[in-house]
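In the previous chapter we treated chains in isolation. Here, by contrast, the input contains four separate entities that must be folded as one system, with a combined length of 812 residues.
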Amino acid sequence: MPELAEAREAIVAAGQRLDRFGWVPATAGNISVRLRDGTVAITRSGGHKGFLDADGVIRVGLDGRSLREGDRPSAETGLHCGIYRRFPEAGAVLHGHSVPVTVLSRLAGESIRLEGYELLKAFPGLATHAAAVELPVFDNDQDIGRLQDAVETRWGGAASVLPGYLLRGHGIYVWGADMPQALMRLEAVEFMLRCELEARRLS
Amino acid sequence: MPELAEAREAIVAAGQRLDRFGWVPATAGNISVRLRDGTVAITRSGGHKGFLDADGVIRVGLDGRSLREGDRPSAETGLHCGIYRRFPEAGAVLHGHSVPVTVLSRLAGESIRLEGYELLKAFPGLATHAAAVELPVFDNDQDIGRLQDAVETRWGGAASVLPGYLLRGHGIYVWGADMPQALMRLEAVEFMLRCELEARRLS
Amino acid sequence: MPELAEAREAIVAAGQRLDRFGWVPATAGNISVRLRDGTVAITRSGGHKGFLDADGVIRVGLDGRSLREGDRPSAETGLHCGIYRRFPEAGAVLHGHSVPVTVLSRLAGESIRLEGYELLKAFPGLATHAAAVELPVFDNDQDIGRLQDAVETRWGGAASVLPGYLLRGHGIYVWGADMPQALMRLEAVEFMLRCELEARRLS
Amino acid sequence: MPELAEAREAIVAAGQRLDRFGWVPATAGNISVRLRDGTVAITRSGGHKGFLDADGVIRVGLDGRSLREGDRPSAETGLHCGIYRRFPEAGAVLHGHSVPVTVLSRLAGESIRLEGYELLKAFPGLATHAAAVELPVFDNDQDIGRLQDAVETRWGGAASVLPGYLLRGHGIYVWGADMPQALMRLEAVEFMLRCELEARRLS
């Protein structure tokens, strides 16, 4: 688990990479890392995640509240902290907006099925391409507390939960043990969703 | 409101970002900022907006006329100044050309409807994704004065006007209180229009 | 008209920009500039046009023959020189390969019609978007002399010829008075062809 | 044939270029070079191929086994070494994942036919666009030994074999005499497959 300074660097760098892909348009998206002391470093509300500086990253408690007066954390901080509370092994959370995520989530029901892709191996417990995953899709909701409840209901008490989900017409949440793993999983899902979108156009 | 030197930097940087996205191809597009003294800094006619230097930005009055002999402002200066005159809160105007804007505007009638997108929150007065906006589309016209009249007629005397519109087969105009807000709104609209284009292909 | 050193810089920079767009894949494409002494600076055969250095640019006469023993000019030098001989005002020629050019030229007959685009103003004599241009398409041919004959036959003795044409399944040739104008025209045509490709998918 | 240090530089640079195109997402893909002493430099298992440093490249024998205790070579090392053993002229092998490769291989039977493209000239023995190539497609398989057997069966004892093949839903393998030639061939195939994908959408 990193200290705040190291976490800030990782978040700033992640924001640049996500921006290169066009996944944090128009100040959308947010990025967080769990710190050694159990609190969370997360992007501040409103800034463009592609051009973060150290000031653009603040600390919040596991309850989502900022730890310094005047700091306004990202609007969806509750979703990040919900992931950290439920999954002790989660060390970094990425939230981005991509065109495939936005378009496919609007067409989907409760989940999007991905199968037959080599990149499915990016998910824990899937050492082969012959498996399939169901990527959960939730209706968007401006009430973050209510949205987090819906997410936790879907997770239930399962021992093993897929480290990602989609918000309809909004974006994707992906997490991992650390930033490199979270980035790797996000790249894998975005790649597979781009393939899905292309394949559907051919029907 | 910035002074000329600061405005020039903002315009040069905005041009580079728009060029990175492919939104200012072939010397098309133009960018302006309202200055502290009430005049307007705007890109000079004809240069490539992706490679501007300080010389590529000149000053015009609110009537669109250049303030220095020999300076030729962007052809569409009248549209920028029309926005600054009508909306005192407007501090920066961006005009770009993208493939989704060009293709969708040619297929559209008087407007393009955007709904259900989280990024609609980029527009003033829309704090939820559950709203819809109608993005006005105007027929292209080489007579800028006549075009500006058509735009003002559509705006009418409304208290609240969407800070953007499309010119058919040509491009998009978006504005904001300052350059970061204008850039953010342009990114948001371009993202949603990319989603619209992708979604239509799946029909 | 530039000297060799200046022309080399312009060609190297143009190659980098074309590579950024993906328009010079796999050592394909070539770039030339007319020099002050009437000879032509052109990319050497075989190198990747995205990573040129000064050595990658050699001199040929207007007849297409290299002026230094051992220099192998680009395979399609005859097409570049054919343009320079026919059009005294031509100062730079760009040849690239893009996906829209390749796909649309394979579906086209003798030409591709572009109309209603603001960017048509990039072509000489077209000050309005209300015009239309017919972009000539020629069957590909490994015999460059025969191909140049076909091109000259289509040009005929017309006073005004569109400064560009397509080779089926191969690529595009565009020229201008200098490198900035050639680059501007190439960007404009590539943009419009991307729009055409997107629009056709919606049918 | 290079020494290890030179091979490492070539592999690191190739990884950056492939990452720029989005061809090595999520730690997928792998890159190798045959060394002067007959062994092979190959990317280590698990790292992101877009951000390699010298440590990310290790040495293996022609049998695929790492030459230093503790080094874990890329999972698909057996496929790289199978190419080096069968083709003495092969000096570099690239394995990437692209959206066109993934989507088209899932729709294909035993091969994908490419014809009429100028870029077919990137393949040995094809000096004209009028030829056609059949790009082999193999079912994906986590058992690399079994997969290599299937590949060698398809190659048979033919004097001339196309320097590339696809793994269904997985990715592409391409090789050449050295890294520049391997990169050039990969760019050519990826370009033609992007054209194929676009063309199929228009049907």
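DSSP finds five helices and eight strands in chain D. The mean pLDDT of chain D is 94. Compare these points with the single-chain example from earlier in the chapter.
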